[in-house]
């Protein structure tokens, strides 16, 4: 298989490379693609130096599969061009996620709905992936009516510029580059642009993408997305109301038995998920599970996951593995 990674020098692109090295995916050729300033430079992959290509050159090479992680603009401009030439595209940007003809896939949840007709598969937003990984098995058993989410998103969610800003502001010796707001010793209730009603695009992604993945427009979902001064890992405080009541131990057992989830839930021993415990791990961690006694059939939880891994690169590579395993490529 000839695989192109578009956006290979970005934070997610680099994690995709690491994952491909960790996994036993046979590649005939790897085409690393980046913006003009990186063309000609080399990346290391499986102990070999490989030259970075332009997207135009890669387009002419007709890769079998391409993973795009270079932003919505590139995906909108090039996505369908590649698929029309026969490339199967896994897109990590927001460009196609809510397009009715494109599937929005978390393999463990709705991979089974991928068909041979699907030539462009959208990877959900990082904060959505970790949310649905935890909620889906509970939805199957107890039917979710309402979800309230508050997210605490690391600076790496806004790319290298977010990380550079945090590092710059933490280092007193570094010259201060003026940013709109300081993130060091601060939290910013603003992830992506606001709509006319005061919700941010990040908050709307959680709502709309979750409903699409669950194929359920009736679930009531509301969210608040916050940027916090940490390097790796998005955290989410979740409040759920179900149609059916639940037994808390049975519910914990369901989560514990779900592939891709790790239950960290023992407050007597101060065991609960934290970003520093989840960095560079491909799983989603869940804890602080407790009944919400303010209303019937309701629950609070805390979930954490590395947004560059299961939140982006890992899910994209798992889609690739799913396609290979099920002989779509
Ligand atoms: C963020 N989830 O954290 C968005 C995009 N990666 O900013």
TrEMBL record:
It comes from the Bacteria. GO terms for molecular function: aspartate-semialdehyde dehydrogenase activity; NAD binding; NADP binding; protein dimerization activity. The active site is at residues 126, 234. Residues 2-117 form the Semialdehyde dehydrogenase NAD-binding domain. It catalyses: L-aspartate 4-semialdehyde + phosphate + NADP(+) = 4-phospho-L-aspartate + NADPH + H(+). InterPro entries: Asp_semialdehyde_DH_beta, NAD(P)-bd_dom_sf, Semialdehyde_DH_NAD-bd, Semialdhyde_DH_dimer_dom. Its EC number is 1.2.1.11. NCBIfam families: asd_B, PRK14874.1. Belongs to the aspartate-semialdehyde dehydrogenase family. This is Aspartate-semialdehyde dehydrogenase. It comes from Karelsulcia muelleri (strain CARI) (Sulcia muelleri). The lineage of its organism: Bacteria, Pseudomonadati, Bacteroidota, Flavobacteriia, Flavobacteriales. The gene is asd.
């Amino acid at each position: 298989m000839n695989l192109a990674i578009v956006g290979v020098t970005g934070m997610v692109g680099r994690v995709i490379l690491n994952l491909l090295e960790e996994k036993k995916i046979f590649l005939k050729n790897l085409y690393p693609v980046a913006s003009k300033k990186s063309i000609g430079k080399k990346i290391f992959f499986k102990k070999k130096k490989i030259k970075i290509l332009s997207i135009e050159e890669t387009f002419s090479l007709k890769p079998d599969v391409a993973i795009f992680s270079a932003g919505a603009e590139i995906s909108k401009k090039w996505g369908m061009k590649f698929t029309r030439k026969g490339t199967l595209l896994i897109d990590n940007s927001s460009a196609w996620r809510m397009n009715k003809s494109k599937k929005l896939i978390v393999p463990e949840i709705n991979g089974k709905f991928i068909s041979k007709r699907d030539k462009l598969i959208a990877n959900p937003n990082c904060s959505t992936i970790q949310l649905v990984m935890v909620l889906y098995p509970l939805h199957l058993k107890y039917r979710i009516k309402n979800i309230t989410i508050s997210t605490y998103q690391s600076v790496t969610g806004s790319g290298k510029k977010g990380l550079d800003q945090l590092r710059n502001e933490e280092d007193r010796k570094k010259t201060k580059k003026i940013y709109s707001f300081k993130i060091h010793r601060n939290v910013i209730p603003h992830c992506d642009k606001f709509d006319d009603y005061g919700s941010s695009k990040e908050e709307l992604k959680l709502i709309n993408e979750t409903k699409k993945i669950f194929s359920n427009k009736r679930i009531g979902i509301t969210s608040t997305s916050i940027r916090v001064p940490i390097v790796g890992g998005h955290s989410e405080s979740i409040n759920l109301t179900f149609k059916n009541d639940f037994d808390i131990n049975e519910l914990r057992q369901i989560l514990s038995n779900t592939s891709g989830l790790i239950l960290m839930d023992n407050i007597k021993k101060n065991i609960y998920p934290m970003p520093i415990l989840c960095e560079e791990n491909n799983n989603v961690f869940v804890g602080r599970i407790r009944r919400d006694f303010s209303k019937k059939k309701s629950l609070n939880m805390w979930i954490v996951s590395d947004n560059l891994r299961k939140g982006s690169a890992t899910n994209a590579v798992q889609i690739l593995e799913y396609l290979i395993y099920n002989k779509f490529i």
